[in-house]
Write a structure and sequence with these properties.
The protein is of the alpha/beta class and 270 residues long. The chain has helices at 15-18, 25-28, 80-86, 104-107, 121-127, 130-138, 209-214, 224-240, 253-258, 265-268; strands at 2-13, 40-49, 52-56, 70-73, 94-98, 116-120, 150-152, 165-167, 174-178, 187-192, 198-203, 243-247.
């Protein structure tokens, strides 16, 4: 198994996105003036395993519009085709794409994909509900042209600390697990590598490893309690299994992957 970290540009977010306030200020501050983060990567993950090339998420496009709490810096050359070429991979070789969730910086690159695109059925159902539909119009962030993913169910029982999972590879070494919080149907993908490490492609389960350590719900989670419960479950999994934890926007994720830097109870408590 080989996993590649691909970068499809960068995004800067409000400080209040990364470190939200309490109560009504948790989301209100996203729309008020405030400081911004340094640019954060927009990662896509490519998995080569048993002759199959899979992607986790598809990244952002150069057409992305800035919104009140996120500013994008993506060139045409950084979109998915260019990011794959930089890694020595061919887009036409991709057999399957798994989406962690349906925010633009994770799905906009699907316009370049011709293979199967999969999404958790809970996430697609939420995407069609009134609130996200209204917000897409307000923020001028339409779904990508031709967006019509297939759905899957988390019906394969527990995997480690996660109660619900879905096998993505026949040998069970690539598994989608239930990580709701950032969105109601958010999933992460865990790959059991050739050294039996669990490489957790965490999407936006957290923005950074620091957020996981702090057990801090983010500013956009519909239910902060659900998000914190998921973070506790991720920490329990990392404590029980040697896990390389890779959120999509963490500047240290590519380095942790390259060095196979696993987490344990000590690393999580720093």
């Amino acid at each position: 198994m080989k996993i590649h970290a691909l970068s499809t540009g960068a995004v800067s977010v409000k400080h209040s996105f990364l470190f939200p306030g309490k109560g009504v200020r948790r989301q209100l501050d996203l729309f008020l003036p405030g400081p911004w983060s340094a640019p954060l990567p927009i990662h896509v993950w490519a998995i080569e395993h048993d002759g199959v090339l899979r992607l986790v998420d598809t990244g952002e496009s150069a057409a992305a519009r800035n919104i009140p709490f996120a500013r994008f810096a993506v060139t045409r050359e950084q979109e998915l085709p260019g990011a794959m070429a930089t890694a020595g991979l061919k887009l036409e070789d991709v057999s399957e794409v798994i989406l962690t969730h349906a925010h633009g910086d994770h799905i906009d690159g699907t316009v370049h994909v011709r293979g199967r695109v999969l999404i958790n059925e809970t996430e697609l159902r939420y995407l069609s509900s009134p609130f996200p539909s209204v917000m897409r119009r307000v923020l001028r962030q339409p779904l990508p042209t031709g967006f019509a993913p297939e759905t899957f169910s988390l019906d394969d029982g527990p995997f480690g600390a996660f109660q619900r999972s879905h096998k993505l590879s026949a040998d069970g070494r690539i598994v989608a697990v239930d990580t709701p919080g950032h969105t109601p149907g958010h999933v992460s993908v865990i790959c059991v590598d050739d050294s039996d490490r669990h490489v957790m492609l965490a999407g936006d389960a957290t923005d950074t490893l620091e957020q996981l350590r702090s057990l801090r719900a983010d500013a956009v989670a519909p239910d902060p309690g659900v998000h914190v419960a998921t973070l506790e479950r991720i920490r329990a999994h990392c404590a029980a299994h040697p896990t390389v934890y890779l959120p999509s926007h963490d500047p240290e994720s590519a380095s942790r992957l390259a060095h196979a830097a696993v987490l344990g109870e000590t690393a999580l408590s720093r």
